[in-house]
Give the backbone structure.
Amino acid sequence: MLVLLLAALGMAFATLVPGVAAAAEAGEQVRGTLQTSLSGPIEGVTVEVATPDGETVDTVQTGEDGRWEVDLPGPGQYVVSVDPDDLPEGVEVNGEPSRTVTVDSGRAQPVNIGLNDGSRNDGGGTIRAVQLFVDGLRFGLLIAMAAVGLSLIYGTTGLTNFAHGELVTIGAIAAWYINVQGGVPLIPAALLAMVVGGVVGALNELVIWRPLRRRGTGLIAALVVSIGLSLALRYGYQIFYGGFSNPYADYQGQRARDYGVFTLQDRDIASIVIAVVVLVLVALMLQRTKIGKAMRAVSDNRDLAASSGIDVNRVVLFVWVLGGALAALGGVLLGLSDQVQWDMGFRLLLLMFAGVTLGGLGTAYGALLGSLIVGVFVQMSTLVIPNDMKYVGGLLLLIVILVVRPQGILGSRARIG
Amino acid sequence: MADLLNAFAIAGKAFFGFQAIFFALLAIGINVHFGYTGLLNFGQIAFAMLGGFGIAISVSQWGLPFWVGVIVGVLAAVVLALLLGLPTLRLRADYLAIVTIATAEGLRLVFRSVSATPVTGGTRGLSAFNRDFIALAPWDTGRRYDLLGTTWSGTELWVCTIGWILVALCSLLVWALMRSPWGRVVKAIREDEDAVRSLGKNVYAYKMQALVLGGIFGAFGGMVYAVGTGSAIPDQYQNANTFLAYAALILGGAARVLGPVIGSMLLLFILQFADTGLRSLIANGVIPSELLSSTDVAQLRYVLVGIGLMLLLVFRPQGIFGDRREVMLDAR
């Protein structure tokens, strides 16, 4: 899995831009690239595309740049398989050598066939545990960025916001539209996505939660309302954005750099740096600025804060904007490494909960610490459990924490009831 | 107009179909958890999955008789409830919520993973485990029957008959239990846990019993679904279903014996009516296909359920039949 990098980010910008007429003329296609980080593109591998009944549509060989594409007779399900015998020595297909894909009308569907060039597992400078640890740190920082908002919202309003994952998704999707369809480079697109996330966070507070607090809606009712919101938004995204996963237009197909004991792509280094800088800034803000102190005060004791002259509603609004923007940035970085999907935020939400609970519900620093631990734990757990079950490891960790220390590492006993 | 009547007929079938039974049983379980005891179980679908796969794995993988499969499913649900309850029932309500939703998602991921494929069939799931059950039907299951303008296969009719009997028995059990001293204690826990504790009751044990009981109802729901569809596939048990069941419960009225049953029937009717209606509107070109394609309709129903759930909770938390004072919403 280490080196699985990474086939196929179908060079599909032209076809990703919709416009029904143009797309319909283009016809359906599956395409991809076969390459690993060490060997580079692999030429002359036989790729077969068949219908689910086993009828061959076409058989092609990858070109000099490792790319292949097959025109299809129409939308539907297809099975794409690679002939493992054609791969160079030492390169293996991850898992099954075939993938079943569903191609929508007029779409050029990228097909990812992960390759493993094996060399990393036995020396070559990389130690698997270290590599997973670094990957885990990167992932943990992403979770932390999204989870800070979740924890602060809980601390200031008492709301367990099940719709927080949708703020992550909106960031990723907004950046995707701005980047891929609007043609804006990814960095400004990410900044715009943060603005979108902040605005959506503010709307959340102003349209739903503040009126509900004013009505005196109970916390349990609010929790169920947030689930309804999550459900509506999540499936709304699926209608609006579609069920597939798409990459951003920039920074794709990077080769991993070797750092001795681990390898990372430049974009992963960048996302670690961005996350660390942003989180340090957040911590400084919480520690030094007036609004940050007010946020911690409200989090600590809402009534006391209000009676010492802090405008609680303003602080809560600020928390929502901050939480929304951070979640959106987390979504963009997650989309950069794992592609953009309609339910990416919801899947992350469970890990955010694990991180926040581990660190202590309602504390900002606890969310940071807990998320880092969860991220590292999830990645490192693939040392012993299969890759497709790694999230389960994180969820198990959550349950163990609740048995051993329910208030979390930095939480206070009084909160857990 | 014909389309509308057709949509109405199809929706009328959904009113009695095995999906309504599935959600009714899930919602009866949630009613015991949330409506009566005040436990926030957001992982009800995990109990259903264990129920369905309990039968599927026992029969098609281990070659056991159907009824043993039912017992396996129930036992699996009991074990899950104990495991979930053990760490969380002493904590505030939302911890149970987080743990149950995480477990439901985690279990689904385990069941569909490559390493579980030899047992669960992975993403393709298992099938062909309901023959023994179908063979019990007193009528010819190969035929189709016309009832009230809708067509039912013999199999469907048999599954639905047994399913509704099961729903009736479960409702009866809940009704009897809630009139018993046990029910009074459980409802008192919902109202004021500390007061009950000060009366010398073991709150933890009562909560655990409620969690197990509701989980068993959920497992029955999963069994009806698995037998009704004839297959058990991990991705059928998406956690959105838990929230559909919550919507059904709150629509019908929480803490009412028949609330979840009526709620599920109504919810399924509304969803199916919207589904068929929208599809025929799209097919006829009334709704332009650029705006909404027929593949989006399935997603749209979740959007509608989400919005409906929010509106219900804000404006009418007691649903159709509920009593506002009995709906546990303010506790923390």
User: Anything to note?
Assistant: Chain B touches chain A through 51 residues (CB under 8 Å).
